[in-house]
């Protein structure tokens, strides 16, 4: 366990995609926070902020390159890989260079003042500290509603998630090392950490308004992330097909008995509804089932290729430049 005697080296890990409007504020705030923590003897002098430019096509990289702050490091990915892979790039880069790290979004929607509590929890033995959104008043009703539904579905499917926790968390170097063993391409980080089972704690905060720029997670990207979360951690949708199939089988069996009864003992008229309805219904169910199976098959296909999850094109380390 970590003791108070040695100050921990901390890295703040910030993925950025087209964040030119936000970066100036983010750099200043995070550098100030770090300097404050260092001066108050909470963390080691060698602590740093690591920005990951996730293939932005605006001025993000040039702002980072010219930031010229000693405690700032930046890596530029060769193309946009999405925040989960950008985060993994950062988490991989800091392995064995730090004692712990905190990942957070560039828009500072996650209240950075609670980082102090995270560090305090780490010092008394937490290997993972989850930042949990106590209130989400600043989120749009649609985002709040869809998030709530998502957590409910995940829970029903038996996936252990920390409710209302996104990617604002502290990880110890031990966890970072273990994370390297997870090679999956279909990444859903917030589902992985509870699975790892290390000693953890929660820190609550109120989610703030995005200070500048706009969300990089429109509805389609959010749906993609949610689908990935479900299909990467649960095969419940596949089971659902079996259950639905069984249910339909029972219903059609009963209908068949009725049809036979009518044929031999009743009066039958060729019916349009009884022919067309099953065609539509079964056709729909079959397509849905095929779609779900295809979703998993696609995942297996991507995983078997075992391709790298990101490529680092450039690095900037202002400490080394001095
Ligand atoms: N982000 C990224 N790559 C992407 C999309 C987003 O690195 O392809 C970063 C983005 O710059 C931000 C974080 O991921 O730092 C979260 O994105 P955002 O704040 O736009 O999402 P929201 O809070 O609206 O869900
Ligand atoms: Mg945000």
TrEMBL record:
GO cellular component entries: plasma membrane
Tree of life domain: Bacteria
Cell location: Membrane
Keywords for the protein's UniProt record, in alphabetical order: Glycosyltransferase, Membrane, Transferase, Transmembrane, Transmembrane helix
Pfam family membership, one: Glycos_transf_2
Major localization listed first in the record, in broad terms: membrane
Coiled coil regions, renumbered to chain: none
Record InterPro entries: Glyco_trans_2-like, Glycosyltransferase_2, Nucleotide-diphossugar_trans
Entry GO MF terms: glycosyltransferase activity
Occurrences of domain Glycosyltransferase 2-like (ranges): 12-176
PANTHER family: PROPHAGE BACTOPRENOL GLUCOSYL TRANSFERASE HOMOLOG, UNDECAPRENYL-PHOSPHATE 4-DEOXY-4-FORMAMIDO-L-ARABINOSE TRANSFERASE-RELATED
Protein name: Glycosyltransferase involved in cell wall bisynthesis
Source taxonomy: Bacteria, Pseudomonadati, Bacteroidota, Sphingobacteriia, Sphingobacteriales
